[in-house]
Amino acid sequence: MFRRAAIKPALPTVVLKEFRGYASGYSTEHREPSGPIVKTEIPGPKSKALLKDMDAIQQCGSVQLFTDFEKSAGNYIADADGNVLLDTYTQISSVPLGYNHPQLLTAFNNDSDIRALVNRPALGVFPAVDWPAKLRDVLLSVAPSGLDQVMTMMCGSCSNENAFKAAFIRYAINKRGGLTTFTEEEMKSVLENKPPGAPNLSVMSFKAPLLQGAFHGRTFGSLATTRSKAIHKLDFPSFDWPAAWFPHYRYPLEEFKRENEQEDKKCLEYVSELFQTWEKKSPIAAVIIEPIQSEGGDNHASPEFFQELQKICANNGAALIMDEVQTGCGPTGKMWCYEHFDLPSPPDMVTFSKKMMTGGFYSKTLYKPPQPFRIFNTWMGDPSKLIMLDRVLKVIKTDKLLDLVQESGRILKCGLHDLECEFPNMINSVRGRGTFLSFDVSTVALRDKIIGTLKKNGVLGGTCGESAIRLRPALIFAPKHAEIYLDILRKTLLELKQGASC
Predict the structure, then answer these.
(1) Over 60: is that where the pLDDT of 26 sits?
(2) Is residue 277 among the annotated active site residues?
(3) Which of 31, 159, 204, 310 is the most exposed, fewest CB within 10 Å of its CB?
(4) Are both 19 and 128 inside the same structural domain?
(5) Which domain of life does this protein belong to (predicted)?
């Protein structure tokens, strides 16, 4: 049983204390509240006024509140109305060290790093003299084992997009028997968007039984593999590419071992079937998959599923692309989530963004394009992001944040299991690794009420899939924060349960 933290309204600001050596990067000047402070409804009047102002300029219906970054600290986000919420969503899983971490606030305190920020180069043509060293010392220092190539990009979508291109290039070279030159017919036909220069190739992604499946981004190639929400794709032309079934497990896992093994087998058989049926129509050059299917509902698959999927890809000459945009950089307790799966060899490519500050993909040398300008754009990332990532990685190491993620994750998961036993008609199917956790709610309407009431009680959370609530806290989320979250979640469930019985 987890220890309940005492929650009081309008708690005073206190210094974030060190937990067994963790979070020691915080100085006495960096202050984090000891709990949420809720002064108004959320969004409050100032946020609503700003929303009205912004709506006159652009579509902003997705905005929940306006953030006061000056007053946000650590695991707490402050809004325009003076509310301070425990943030378990962290800018859609993108904040590695919480808000205003001193190591990041001082990242540009010297002239050299300021110049990297100001003189943003076209990295594919005019990189700075220290760029090779930064790639090696920062990005390759945490590269997945066996992947010695890295290409930087701006975001998760373009990271996946360009990984597809690398896979297509390698597939075409293999089909030419290893030739890296082009025929005159290929050179002419590609400018008309026709074969053989523009071959009919495809990328396999994964859908889920409850409609919401993979999410790999919103640019056109990535969007063709995104299968989570219709609104992402409506009205846009798309590639006709195959989708396999992602396993849909029954929980608790230990009670449904046989059924879930059968689910793995069924889904893998379908993957093999798709390779055969699409061979004549549009051969599958790559398979992209999330280690945890995040936007689609935090759907999990077993290590055995991923091991067999890797074999199927290898047997069919297709690249296995592991999309670690959300799961990368430690939230599951390992630097890369796929490391939980004991694969006999690394994936062919691993894409990243969000907590990694920059975007890009790691790959085997085999996927390095033989010609320049094939994986290319003007900026190809931003050197200033590697300056911040360097700081992030050092804090992860010195403050042992992966250990902290595991410890806080155990408390969170045990507490969530307690709550699903206490409120079995409201929440169920607790799952996840590290602090990358989620649970299902019995109805969509109740899920939305829980999220709204959590916010009213001082916790900012996120949703995914049909009816899931997900946790995406920063890596500095400590046991005391886990206890605060669990206490407020229990309070929220009690409020809603009592309200429903009235």
Answers:
(1) no
(2) no
(3) 31
(4) no
(5) Eukaryota
